[in-house]
Design goal:
Organism (chain B): Oreochromis niloticus
Largest sheet of chain B: 4 strands, mixed
CATH topology of one domain in chain A: Recoverin, domain 1
Largest sheet of chain A: 2 strands, antiparallel
CATH architecture of one domain in chain A: Orthogonal Bundle
Largest interface: A-B, 50 and 42 residues
Distance between the termini of chain A: 72 Å
CATH class of one domain in chain B: Mainly Alpha
Radius of gyration of chain B: 42 Å
Strand order of the largest sheet of chain B: 2-1-4-3
Strand order of the largest sheet of chain A: 1-2
Shape of chain A: globular
Order of helices and strands of chain B: HEEHEEHHHHHEEHHHHHHHHHHHHHHHHH
Family (chain B): Belongs to the potassium channel family. D (Shal) (TC 1.A.1.2) subfamily. Kv4.1/KCND1 sub-subfamily.
Structural class of chain B: mainly alpha
Number of strands of chain B: 6
GO cellular component, one term (chain B): voltage-gated potassium channel complex
GO molecular function (chain B): A-type (transient outward) potassium channel activity
Order of helices and strands of chain A: HHHEHHEHHEHHEHH
InterPro entries (chain B): BTB/POZ_dom, Ion_trans_dom, K_chnl_volt-dep_Kv, K_chnl_volt-dep_Kv4, K_chnl_volt-dep_Kv4.1, K_chnl_volt-dep_Kv4_C, Shal-type_N, SKP1/BTB/POZ_sf
Oligomer: heterodimer
């Protein structure tokens, strides 16, 4: 009787081993580290001081010890700032905007260059960056579908419980208003120049650019 | 929000650029952050081990000690560091929590020490990471159980009864814990003996005895010596009834007692006898009567009051109820299945014993438990095949829940053993703690003595004063203040019990005293012995001695000798009584029985607090008494 029980337990032990090997392999693969370029080089390429870069890197390394951020982690981090709604779509577009090399991961250099433009760049640089954010397929034009995606992603971040309650066609109306403002020649797409000119004319937006004061 | 995410806030704010073209209204002004932006390294000195960390790291959790301004209380300006007088090994884990956002529980640390550290640093234990949370919870539960057992043990049985317990409470205590008094122990053993006698009688009365003359067939002893057995049974039942009624009377909550298992067993043990008494001896009910006699065997369960092992077994079975239930259920299922199969397999054969499915149940049970009586045996091949499958599976089904039950029993048994060991050790521990406590209280009383003693001799006073630390000085001063406030004095246990005794005695003899001795006391305006109750008792006794001279004869048990030439005491309210009786302390011819040696009043003018009396001769105060001229230690009666 004891032999029966004994053989039963032995059987389960043997079955367990192969699966453990598989997970070990997976672990090894994620251990690959990436190191950024030197501090001086980054300082030369961006508009940050050494201290600021240090602070940024410490925060970056804390969250991503392996040195790269993949999209999942990126979405997770960004979602923590917007717990009410679903920030995953907007985070996806942001990720693509930061990931200039389009290799599916953001290294510290990409991260810090993007931040440098947004926080310390000229107005034109900021607007160009925003244009690239909106231009999902990177064809140089923003069309209605892309804009609708972006607007919907932003509204998703608000979540369900808003005041006044969110109705279905509000994003569409927002897109229409945007195109009305931006599309000067009414050809259905917005080019980079149209975008920049329209934004510079927009008083509200220019005033809002103060958003980037004191961020770092 | 996780810790490190706070450092991504600048990024999140920068990413808001994507909203700007879409916004219809102006964005609000960003908050102005006046604090210095540059990060600095903070130094944390924990019991000499220096930790360094960025200020931002600590700021991640602003509702903890290190993250809030509370740490400023620990800032040492000379060394420009934060000094914490705590365990540095555990601080490591706490600092790691700030760094990584995960709190880990070190397995080799005591759970309570860890909890205290967390409480000190303002961290809630709930954020312990998943990796360590299970271990933490298990240890905490174990600790709490252990503490609950301790307090339970403390407040139950072994604690001494409060002196003002009613006889009913004492009786209940005697029943529940027979070791408290000899009477209870005697009763315990007597009932045990009678339980045994009753059970043995029940057993023996069915044994066949030699038949009396004129009969051939063997008779069971119960019928041969019917009267003897009946008398024995009656005696046992009387004792059990008496015990049950006593318990019922003494129980603090009668309803709860009547519902308890032991009480039910008691009732079931004695009821058959009474029912048998009242029932008539006719043939119809005698069958039922015989059945009732079976219940007499339940008396053996009364032994569980006397045996802890039985109780543990019962408790184990109760706690393994689910496993037992599973065992029963699976067995029933298997029995029904195999009985059906065997019945249909053996249906055709002639003279088969498998007459019905319920009849096959017996075969299945006997086979599954591997008994194999052989009274029912399959004859067909199919029957034999299924029979063998039945016996193989029986072994398996029974063996599965057994380890669970065994491990449960082992756990409970060890727990019980641990509880017993702890209770035994607890007594020693408590005794040691009590002695240590007594040391501190005695220090104060000792100090008072020394002051009194050393009052005449300034050198020794200085010496004994120097021996105390600054803390003790202030502590004793505090106790003095309390004494002054309440007009009572601190004394020790023995003195107090003596006091109670002498007071009762003093009351007896003081009735006949009069205050006419006041005159004699005018020579000595002071009260004598400054002891409060002692004085009272002493006054009365001395009063009585004074009145002895007037002819009243009394037996004196104790008498305090008053000493002369004592500066007036400042005990206000008590002095009033002392003034009642200003005895002639100068009289030295008081001879009286002395049980306790009086304490000399304080001779130090500054210190009016007298030392505590020494109630029992042989204590060091004896020596002090010899310093005084007027003490008499003669024991005689007037």
């Amino acid at each position: 009787m004891g032999a029966v029980v004994g053989t039963l337990t032995m059987q389960t032990k043997q079955n367990r081993r192969p699966s453990r090997d598989k997970t070990d392999d997976e672990l090894e693969m994620t251990m690959v580290c990436h190191r950024p370029e030197g501090l001086e080089q980054l300082e030369a390429q961006t508009n940050f001081t050494k201290q600021e870069l240090q602070i940024l890197y410490r925060g970056f390394k804390n969250e991503c010890p392996s040195g790269v951020v993949n999209e999942e982690t990126f979405k997770h981090i960004y979602a923590q700032f917007f717990p009410h709604g679903d920030a995953s779509m907007y985070a996806h577009y942001l990720f693509n905007a930061f990931d200039t090399a389009n290799n599916g991961s953001i290294k510290f250099k990409d991260f810090v260059m993007g931040l440098s433009i947004l926080l310390r760049g000229t107005l034109r640089e900021k607007l160009e960056w925003t244009f690239h954010l909106y231009d999902i397929n990177r064809d140089g034009y923003i069309n209605r579908e892309e804009m609708t995606e972006i607007v919907r992603a932003i509204y998703d971040m608000m979540g369900k419980y808003t005041y006044p309650a969110l109705k279905g066609d509000v994003p569409q109306q927002h897109v229409d208003a945007f195109f009305q403002k931006m599309d000067k020649n009414k050809d259905g797409v917005v080019t980079l120049e149209e975008f920049i000119v329209a934004c510079q004319e927009d008083e509200t937006m220019m005033r809002s650019m103060q958003l980037f004061e004191n961020v770092m | 929000m996780a810790a490190g995410v706070a450092t991504w806030l600048p990024f999140a704010r920068a990413a808001a650029v994507g909203w700007l073209p879409l916004a219809k209204k102006t964005m609000p002004k960003p908050p102005v952050d006046n604090s210095s932006r540059s990060d600095e390294i903070l130094y944390l000195n924990v019991s000499g081990v220096r930790f360094q960390t960025w200020k931002n790291t600590l700021d991640r959790y602003p509702d903890t000690l290190l993250g809030s301004s509370e740490k400023e209380f620990f800032f040492n300006e000379d060394t420009e560091e934060y000094f914490f007088d705590r365990d540095h090994e555990m601080f490591r884990h706490i600092l790691n929590f700030y760094r990584t956002g995960k709190l880990h529980y070190p397995r080799h640390e005591c759970i309570q020490a860890f909890d205290e550290e967390l409480a000190f640093y303002g961290i809630v234990p709930e954020i312990i990471g998943d990796c360590c949370m299970e271990e933490y919870r298990d240890r905490k539960k174990e600790n709490q159980e252990r503490l609950a057992e301790d307090t339970e043990a403390n407040e139950s049985m072994d604690a001494p009864l409060p002196p003002d317990s009613t006889p009913r409470e004492r009786l209940w205590r005697a029943f529940e814990n027979p070791h408290t008094s000899t009477m209870a122990l005697v009763f315990y053993y007597v009932t045990g003996f009678f339980i045994a006698v009753s059970v043995i009688a029940n057993v023996v009365e069915t044994v066949p005895c030699r038949p009396p003359e004129g009969r051939i067939k063997d008779l069971p002893c119960g019928e041969k010596y019917q009267l003897a057995f009946f008398c024995m049974d009656t005696a046992c039942v009387l004792i059990f009834t008496f015990e049950y009624l006593m318990r019922l009377f003494a129980a603090p909550s009668r309803c709860k007692f009547m519902r308890s298992v032991m009480s039910v067993i008691d009732v079931v043990a004695i009821m058959p006898y009474y029912i048998g008494l009242v029932m008539p001896e006719n043939e119809d009910v005698s069958g039922a009567f015989v059945t009732l006699r079976v219940f007499r065997v339940f008396r053996i369960f009364k032994f569980s009051r006397h045996s802890q092992g039985l109780r543990i077994l019962g408790y184990t079975l109760k706690s393994c109820a689910s496993e037992l239930g599973f065992l029963l259920f699976s067995l029933t299922m298997a029995i029904i299945i195999f009985a059906t199969v065997m019945f249909y397999a053996e249906k055709g054969t002639k003279g088969s014993t498998f007459t019905s499915i319920p009849a096959s149940f017996w075969y299945t049970i006997v086979t599954m438990t591997t008994l194999g009586y052989g009274d029912m045996v399959p004859n067909t091949i199919a029957g034999k095949i299924f029979g063998s499958i039945c016996s193989l599976s029986g072994v398996l089904v029974i063996a599965l829940p057994v380890p669970v039950i065994v491990s449960n029993f082992s756990r409970i048994y060890h727990q019980n053993q641990r509880a017993d060991k702890r209770r035994a050790q607890q007594k020693v521990r408590l005794a040691r703690i009590r002695m240590a406590k007594k040391g501190t209280t005695n220090a104060f009383l000792q100090y008072k003595e020394d002051r009194a003693l050393g009052g005449r001799d300034s050198d020794s006073t200085a010496l004994c004063v120097k021996n105390r630390s600054a803390f003790e000085h202030q502590h004793h001063h505090l106790l003095h203040c309390l004494e002054k406030t309440t007009n009572h004095e601190f004394t020790d246990e023995m003195t107090y019990s003596e006091l109670c005794m002498t007071e009762s005695v003093g009351f007896r003899t003081s009735r006949s005293t009069s205050l006419s001795s006041q005159q004699g006391a005018q020579n000595n305006p002071t009260g004598c012995c400054p002891r409060r109750a002692r004085r009272r008792a002493a006054m009365r006794l001395a009063n009585s001695t004074a009145s002895v001279s007037r002819g009243s004869v009394q037996e004196l048990d104790t008498l305090h000798i008053k000493t002369t030439s004592i500066p007036p005491q400042t005990r206000s309210s008590l002095n009033a009584q002392a003034d009642d009786l200003k005895l002639n302390c100068g009289e030295q011819d008081f001879t009286a029985a002395i049980i306790s040696i009086p304490t000399p009043p304080a001779n130090t003018p500054d210190e009016s607090l007298p030392p505590s009396p020494a109630p029992i001769p042989g204590i060091l105060r004896n020596t002090r008494a010899t310093a005084f001229t007027h003490e008499t230690v003669k024991i005689s009666s007037l």
